[in-house]
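Dear support,

I submitted the protein below through the web form. The confirmation email said the job was done, but the results page showed an empty box. After a refresh the structure appeared. I'm attaching both so you can tell me whether what I see now is the final result or a partial one.
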Amino acid sequence: MINECQNGMIDAAHSTNEGLVAHMVDRDVVRRIADLAEVCRRAGVLVVHSTIVLRADGVGSEPSSLLLGALIKRGAVVEGRPEAEIHPDLAPRPGDYVLRRMHGLAPFHGTELEPVLRQQRVRTVIVTGVSTNIGIPGICLEAVDRGFTAVVPEDCVAGSSSDIHNFQIEHILPLLATVTTAQDVIHVLEEHGPRWNDPRTSSDGSGGRSR
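What the results page shows now:
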């Protein structure tokens, strides 16, 4: 899953979150996510792009928290504006799944994500994108609550500052997910190859598929 890698979040030309943009650039996160996504596609693993896209008239988006209120007030990620578009280096490819929501702070809320994952017999969710402040731990918590396992490649996520990112990686995310690296995930995916999708390759018949 690639979470909220939209221009209004991570592109310096459109985002007002300078800290998040800098952390993404300094750690080359976009390239790492793109590389991991390509390996997932080759392995037959569904790539999900989770986005938040607001309606221009505000319908469906409630400023029920400081973060959502700020997002709505700025008019960021509004449908039809470049800020709402996915970063061009991470543009969806044929076969990817683009998930759009207009409220909430995590992609399971009020969306079809869970039934899509169930239909695909997913057991493990690979979580990338932004931000380690709220979005990434939010996804992991929601995934765990629904019986999924979460895996976070630490070099494929970013926060508004290195201090916040490091705190979350060291103290919060290990309680919710397996924290690893993109290379370790790629190694597993490449080892399984096309068999990743074959339910006959796991002892319990589920295939152990990951997204």
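Response: this is the final, complete result; the empty box was a page-load delay. Strands lie at 2-3, 48-52, 97-101, 122-126, 128-130, 149-153, 157-158, 178-180, 209-210.
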